[in-house]
């Protein structure tokens, strides 16, 4: 994996880790906030629902209590058979009926079981005495149970099979002056209207219910769960609030919470529970005025659905991608691209090419490195150029030294070989001949022997100077070895060859005669033809020189392949 991919993978990994950590923290924070918010909502909702119920019932309860204290009714309890008393009592009942919200009432007397009732539409005018309660009749058991319990006030959701209605009954005991229970009065509220008003509201995600002291459900939007006629049901057959919850833990928690509310001064308590597989917050309050609990179930996922978080997740994801893209651009332009170009420049320098393209220099350590590298390359290039220049100079010097005779300063034998090759090729190319002179100092050995080697060297140097003086500027003389010299004449023809050979011989003879050591030279010359090889040329010139020596020295012989012409 290259550096770019590694950096990006590392960055992406770090961002993902950071994102997961942030997301986890966010989830916990939001759960915490939702929980606190939910508890406050539950508290407010509990207060609100309780207030609504009590507001609906308070006036009816007060009226029922007032009715229970009615002297006319107490008189009828004392004297059930007095027609006037009865008429006065029924008049009183009807008066209360007009004041009750439901325009209905009931009055039941303990002594004779007489049950009076009239409804909203006044169906029982003149027939308010409806029937006689029977202690052995299950449908009438509620009356005798309430009397037994001695609870002055009781709310009861109960169908009345005799009357054919299901109502929320407000039951208040009648007591005489001696505080002895003589009967019961009350009114009913139409259960459907009541459920619709109080618990079956359209608030999405909020469920309101009321349960009695034992947890039996009294008001709930689903009538199937309502525990009708709770008062007469044995424990275990009641439809209690714990039926709404899935887990045993939740059932126990809720019942504990209700108990705690009644026993302590807490006005509202809340717990998290699961209803139909969904997490709910259950808030509850005890209503001492009616002896019921108000319970509110808040479905948090409906009130605050997770889909509300999608924009947040989208913003979070977009931020993550934008950050990654920005990071990629920064890494690309500020680090990777300059590093790659620097790497290419290093390779180029390694291959010996110092002419670098301009390097990217971001304002960071890589930029400084690139600038230093450029500076280093410039210094290297300068050093290399200087070195190459010196090497070229030395090579030229060596080349010259290798081709110069150190004693006389003329070309040496190696150089003469090269000159001869160049001229042979040129002659073939241009189909033109050139001249070669081979000359040898006569009796040189005797000079060495008689005057010493040093003098011999001086004679050689002097002879070299005289040879150069007698030639044209572009002729090329050289020392072949010992006391032998060669001259390459180009351009040249027969006359030029003869003329220059003779002039050279005469110059040496004349000039040396002016000194104190006269010398002469023998010259063998050859006019080279196109196509002649070096071997042929040297052979011909050597033969001519040999003849010049043979002819008595201080002589010029021009060789001819066919005939030699002595000078
Ligand atoms: N001083 C000196 N002598 C050299 C040098 N090279 C060769 N010699 C001598 O030159 C002499 C050449 O003699 P030869 O060419 O053989 O004979 P010569 O005496 O010139 O006689 P001919 O050529 O027949 O006229 C030898 O004695 C060599 O030792 C040199 O560099 N310096």
From TrEMBL:
One Pfam family matching this protein: GGDEF
Residue stretches making up the GGDEF domain: 432-561
Superkingdom assignment: Bacteria
GO molecular function, one term: diguanylate cyclase activity
A single GO BP: signal transduction
Keywords for this protein: Membrane, Transmembrane, Transmembrane helix
Keyword hit for ATP-binding: no
SMART domains according to UniProt: GGDEF (SM00267), HAMP (SM00304)
Membrane-spanning residues: 7-26, 309-331
Cellular compartments per GO CC: membrane
Listed EC numbers: 2.7.7.65
Residues covered by the HAMP domain: 333-385
Cofactor(s) in the UniProt record: Mg(2+)
Gene3D superfamilies to which the protein is assigned, alphabetical: 3.30.70.270, 6.10.340.10
Catalytic reactions of this protein: 2 GTP = 3',3'-c-di-GMP + 2 diphosphate
Protein name: diguanylate cyclase
The organism's taxonomic lineage, starting at the top: Bacteria, Pseudomonadati, Pseudomonadota, Gammaproteobacteria, Pseudomonadales
């Amino acid at each position: 994996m290259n550096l770019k991919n590694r950096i990006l993978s590392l960055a992406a990994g770090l961002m993902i880790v950071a994102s997961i950590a942030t997301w986890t923290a966010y989830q916990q924070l939001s759960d915490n906030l939702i929980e606190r918010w939910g508890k406050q909502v539950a508290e407010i909702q509990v207060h609100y629902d309780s207030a609504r119920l009590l507001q609906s019932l308070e006036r009816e309860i007060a009226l029922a209590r007032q009715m229970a204290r009615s002297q006319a009714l107490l008189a009828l309890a004392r004297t059930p058979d007095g027609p006037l008393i009865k008429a006065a009592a029924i008049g009183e009942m009807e008066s209360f009926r007009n004041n009750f919200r439901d325009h209905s009432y009931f009055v039941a007397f303990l002594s004779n079981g007489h049950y009076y009732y009239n409804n909203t539409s006044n169906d029982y005018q003149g027939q308010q005495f409806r029937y006689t309660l029977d202690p052995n009749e299950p449908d009438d058991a509620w009356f005798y149970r309430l009397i037994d319990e001695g609870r002055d006030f009781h709310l009861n959701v109960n169908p009345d099979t005799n009357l054919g209605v299901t109502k929320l009954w407000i039951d208040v005991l009648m007591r005489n002056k001696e505080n002895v229970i003589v009967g019961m009065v009350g009114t009913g509220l139409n259960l459907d209207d009541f459920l619709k008003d109080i618990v079956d509201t359209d608030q999405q995600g909020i469920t309101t219910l009321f349960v009695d002291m034992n947890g039996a459900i009294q008001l709930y939007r689903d009538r199937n769960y309502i525990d009708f006629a709770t008062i007469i049901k044995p424990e275990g057959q009641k439809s209690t609030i714990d039926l709404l919850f899935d887990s045993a833990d939740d059932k126990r928690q809720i019942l504990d919470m209700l108990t705690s509310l009644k026993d302590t001064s807490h006005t509202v308590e809340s717990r998290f529970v699961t209803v139909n597989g969904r997490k709910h917050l259950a808030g509850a309050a005890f209503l001492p005025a009616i002896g019921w609990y108000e319970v509110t179930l808040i479905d948090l996922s409906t009130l605050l659905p997770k889909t509300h978080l999608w924009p947040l997740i989208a913003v979070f994801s977009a931020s993550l991608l934008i950050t990654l893209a920005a990071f990629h651009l920064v890494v690309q332009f500020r680090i990777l691209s300059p590093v790659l170009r620097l790497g290419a420049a290093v390779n180029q320098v390694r291959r010996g090419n110092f002419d670098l393209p301009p390097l990217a220099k971001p304002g960071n350590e890589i930029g400084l490195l690139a600038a230093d590298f450029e500076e280093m390359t410039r210094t290297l290039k300068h050093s290399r150029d200087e070195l190459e220049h010196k090497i070229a100079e030395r090579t030229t010097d060596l080349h010259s030294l290798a081709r110069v005779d150190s004693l006389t300063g003329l070309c040496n034998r190696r150089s003469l070989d090269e000159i001869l090759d160049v001229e042979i090729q040129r002659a073939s190319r241009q189909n033109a001949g050139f001249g070669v002179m081979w000359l040898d100092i006569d009796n040189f050995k005797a000079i060495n022997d008689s005057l010493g080697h040093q003098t011999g060297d001086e004679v050689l140097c002097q002879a070299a100077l005289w040879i150069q003086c007698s030639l044209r500027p572009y002729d090329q003389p050289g020392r072949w070895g010992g006391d032998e010299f060669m001259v390459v004449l180009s351009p040249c023809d027969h006359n030029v060859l003869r003329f220059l050979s003779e002039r050279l011989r005469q110059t040496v003879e004349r000039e040396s005669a002016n000194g104190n050591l006269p010398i002469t030279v023998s010259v063998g010359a050859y006019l080279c033809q196109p196509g002649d090889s070096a071997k042929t040329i040297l052979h011909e010139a050597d033969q001519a020189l040999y003849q010049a020596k043979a002819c008595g020295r201080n002589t010029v012989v021009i060789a001819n392949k066919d005939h030699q012409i002595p000078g």
